[in-house]
Amino acid sequence: MCVMPCRAGWIFDGKPSTWEGTPDELKVVEETYPVLRLELGGQWTDFELKASTNNFETLCYYIMSSGTNAWTTDTNVWIYYTDDYAPDVRKWQKAGHPISICSQLIDPVNSEVRAAIVLPSHECSVDWRVWMSPTNTKLVWSYVRYDGIGFEMNATGTKQRWTAVVPAEWRRERIVP
């Protein structure tokens, strides 16, 4: 079987074709869903996450896990975490949207959320096709931790402490535990 690109479409076993006529097993589907692992821990149970393609002159993505901000740009983001007071502490819990992770914990005072797994959707206010791609070298992500009262601050308490993060991987479909 020979597949070669040409101007009019594809040559498949010597027969000209188009993308629509190409067998599914030969089509390359780009992995368009990033998987982000945000380190939380201690008192930090929630976060604010932003993405930009021009180093934060403007935003292409914004969510706040606590749901306290109406400016969230992804209406179907999936956020998973583990709860060390849950009946099965290994189980990935899916955060209800737009409810804070803290308020969903079995023991909001003692539970610790070590990390959150964020799976953005394609239901974004900025068209995901123009920025959400593993080949987009301009795409950067940062997050700040939140404890339900305030954001993590620098040592002098004058600025929020943001952390750079990159996707751990990209997938064709989002994780569904």
Commentary on this structure:
Helices cover 0% and strands 31% of the residues. The two termini are 37 Å apart. A five-stranded antiparallel beta sheet has the order 8-7-9-4-12, with no helix packed on it. A four-stranded antiparallel beta sheet has the order 6-5-10-11, with no helix packed on it. Strand 1 (3-6) and strand 2 form a beta hairpin. Residues 1-8 have low confidence and may be disordered. It has strands spanning 3-6, 9-12, 15-17, 33-39, 46-52, 61-64, 78-81, 93-94, 115-119, 140-146, 162-165, 169-171. The chain is an all-beta fold. The chain has two domains: 1-30, no CATH class; 32-171.
Tally of helical runs: 0
Computed CA radius of gyration, to the nearest angstrom: 20 Å
Main sheet strand line-up: 8-7-9-4-12
What's the overall average pLDDT, rounded?
A: 87
Distance between the termini: 37 Å
The shape is globular
DSSP E strands, number:
12
What is the total domain count?
2
Specify the biggest β-sheet: 5 strands, antiparallel
